[in-house]
């Protein structure tokens, strides 16, 4: 579609990337690739230079998440979707309960439903735009949900389900679009896992997990039982959480990683910690999100999609647009003017904008975006 609206240069943000994942990658991260290219790219991930890079990532994430005693950082190839299958293979002993309230929070539950060695999960569901945690359930050994539902812009609490410790049930929380953008106390979880292409400003294809001692013990026990004669469960090496952790303790991954992703991730983690860690990052995201929600509440043609103020995400902001205005056309004009990735989640099917406000995004650019949207709507 050809733009019929040219946004004045003095209204445009300095950087027009507002993706909900992949998200904005800072210029210094790209420069880090250039600086480390000849020493790191195209070399073995089992040699000292790459192992030092992984060690820095693990140490930096431990600092960022204020790692409780006994918790460890593991990582491996495949992204969060691979970790769903890994959790089915190694962390759910028999049956899990899930909170589902959008496309991504439902995907882990679907993985558990398809695992032939697990019983059908118990699913606690709510409508898009809301959240629902799993409730205490007698016969489950794991509870799972998403900290942030990327498809709808809903942020859910991260807290242990009452009674879960007494029944020795793990808490598994998907932090993919929340980690680095929303506050979290990882001691309330046994596995807080995510991919780095959101707040950590890297490419996808990698999973990272903050694991409790209970999760580590569960994986070891489940994987041991899977090796016994007559066992129904098969844990392939790629999905072995114990193998992933063993390699992480050696500052490497089981399989060859994308070294460029590691370089950008390491640079981002250092940047976040140097600026004040989780407190700084989450306050920055909250400021950007507030600019958008306040603008939408004042607008005559837009409003926040998530009705509950306390459930509105500070990582991914969803804004409904009146039917008199075509969000699709607004998004196309913005893209023609260099402002990209503001489209709503396609499967949600709403007349909507969806805007990533991760730490790399400047709040001043978010403010500029609101002015640009107003300009486009006025001139269409």
The Rg value, from CA coordinates, equals: 21 Å
* String of helices and strands: HHEHEHEEEEEEEHHHHEEHEH
**Mean pLDDT, rounded to whole units?**
96
Task: Note poorly predicted spans.
Answer: none
Count of strand segments: 12
CATH fold topology of the largest domain? Aspartate Aminotransferase, domain 2
Overall shape? globular
Q: Main beta sheet: strand number and arrangement?
A: 7 strands, mixed
Q: Give, in spatial order, the strands making up the sheet with the most strands.
A: 1-9-8-7-4-2-3
- Domain unit count: 2
Oligomer: single chain
Measured between the Cα atoms of the first and last residue, the distance is 13 Å
CATH class of the largest domain equals Alpha Beta
Strand content: 5-15%
Task: Give a topology summary.
Elements (H helix, E strand, L loop, with lengths): L26 H14 L7 H17 L7 E6 L1 H12 L5 E5 L2 H12 L7 E4 L16 E5 L1 E2 L4 E2 L14 E5 L16 E4 L11 E6 L1 H14 L14 H8 L10 H17 L1 H22 L3 E3 L11 E6 L5 H10 L15 E5 L6 H17 L1
Parallel strand pairs: 2-3, 2-4, 4-7, 7-8
Antiparallel strand pairs: 1-9, 5-6, 8-9, 10-11, 11-12
